Structures are given as C-alpha cells and as structure tokens.
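Async update (no meeting this week)

Hi team, since we skipped the sync, here's where things stand on the single-chain job. The sequence we agreed to prioritize is pasted below, unchanged from the tracker. I ran it this morning and attached the output directly underneath so nobody has to dig for it. Comments welcome in thread, and please keep replies under the output.
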Amino acid sequence: MFMSFVDVVGAGRIGHGIALCVAMHGFRVRLRDVKHRTPDERKMLREKILSQIQESLRLFEECEFIHEPVDEVVKRIVFADGYDGLEDAFHVVEAVPEDAAVKKQVYSMVCERIGSDALLASTSSSMRPSALAKHVKHPERFLVTHWINPAELIPLVEVAPAPQTSRETVEEAVEFLRRCGKRPVVCGDSPGYVSARLQAALMNEALRLVEEGVASPHDVDEALMAGIGFRLSVHGLLEFVDWGGVDILYRVDEYLAAELNAERFRPPALLRKLVEERRLGMHVGRGVFDYDGIDIEALKLSRKKAMVKRLKQLRDEQG
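Output:
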C-alpha cells in the first residue's frame, strides 16, 4: 500500500493544493489536467501552478513546517495530461468542478483505467456520495473526501462514504489522510456533510445582519473573529453549548425566533430533548456530551489557558 502514485484529476485550485499537501508528506503525485487546452494554454497553466506551489512551499519553509529543500518536494509532483497511466494508481482524487455532469464524465474515463483495488475519492463539497457512487464501476471503493480550500493549509478533510462503500475503504482513506497530516472526520451520506452546512448557516446569517443594517460588513467580520471565532479556535461549538448551558441556548433560540419572527431560530428537536431530560451542560455533568469521570474544572482551565496563549499570539502579531 502507498507505494505508487497518488493521482489528482483536476488541476484547479483545490487540485493543486491537494497535490502539494500529498507531496509534502512524501508521496509521489500526478497532477492531471483533463480540460481541453491548446499547448500554449497548458504550458501557461503549468507555469502558474508551479509558481503557486513554490510560493506556498517557501511560506512553509519560513515557518519551519518542512525540513527538506523546496525542490525535493516539487520533484515529487508530476504534471500529466488526460487519463493515460492511471492503471498503476492506488489512490485517485477527483478534483473537478462541483458539477454532477462533469463528475460523471470524469468517473467514466477514470473507471475505464484504474484497477478494482484502487480507491477513488471525490472532493465534492456538497453532493451526496450515494448520488455520485451510481456513476462508478466499483462503488465499494468510492467515497467523498472533502478537502477545504486552501487544501494544503486547512487540517480538516471530511470523509463521507456512500452506503455501498466498504469499511476497509473508509479505513484506508482515513489512514491516508492522517499520513498527509490531515484531521479526517467521518460523516454520513448527507448533502453538505458537516462543514458546508455550518458554513452556509453562518455566512447567510452574516449577510442578513448587513442586509438588516445591524452592523457593517467590517464589523460583522470583526465580531466573528474577535468573539465566536476566537473561542472556537480552542474548543468545539457543541462543547461551547455545554459550557454556556443547554437551557441558555434554548431560551435564546426561543427569544430570537419570536422577536425576529424567524423559524430558523426555533430550537431543534435535539435541543428540546436535552432540556426535557435535564441534560443542561457541564454544570450538571451532562449535556450534548457526557462528562462522567471528567474533571470539568480542569477541562475549563485547559481551555482558558489555550485562549490566553491565543490572546498573547494575537497581541504579539499586532505589535
């Protein structure tokens, strides 16, 4: 396993970011441009991608994130046109635009060439894996691995199997991503997975705040970065619910729904259930999470220490 090339099909932003990340972690990778181009257009694209990759690698080098010469990493990236040579691939990443028809066409070409033991992963950011798996030859070896732009920087990759995907395929994908320095999270067969749904909700509400004149675009972003975003850099959103109190969130939701006449703020069924069961958060030992056997005060102290470190980092950056 992991002895041959990783093939990234699609040479756009997400594709060359994945290729860079994979190469940084010791794998040989073929970055495949499958779009029709003239020879001059292809040459210009390669030069542009190579320049961007080298720029990113220099940044990693400056921050002492890599400990080998930039040129050595670049040598592991091979540019390829089309689909020839896929026969020896063990891990193929489809990184073409979020268009079902385009993906279907790519899968047809890829599946004609790869072996039955090769893993095929889509970088779709929103499509159901089950809908995509209908178009591949070996659905048991197919799943979504949603890398987030910029792919070489964001630690998260969402792993979303289709119902037909084998457990071995999921385990292999997770192992590969960890070897690439990523933090894989396995999701269900649902549109948008986790991050796209959370991101869409937050982005849309931010735009509504501007639309309603609550705050300027600059101040909305500042409030997010200095408030929620700051806190979420050290712990998760659902842990935050438990910290603040499940019942507090419930009351805030009810108030916002009534005052803004907005159904989107109505408490979800799970929140109502937690309140009914008196799973009210850290202060009672149970909430979204169960804190049995956990020293809650020590947990809170560790989070606060992380916030102080982050605060100092921000202060140092601001001079």
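Quick observations from my side:
The chain has a mean pLDDT of 95.
The chain has two domains: 6-186, 195-305.
Reply here if anything looks off.
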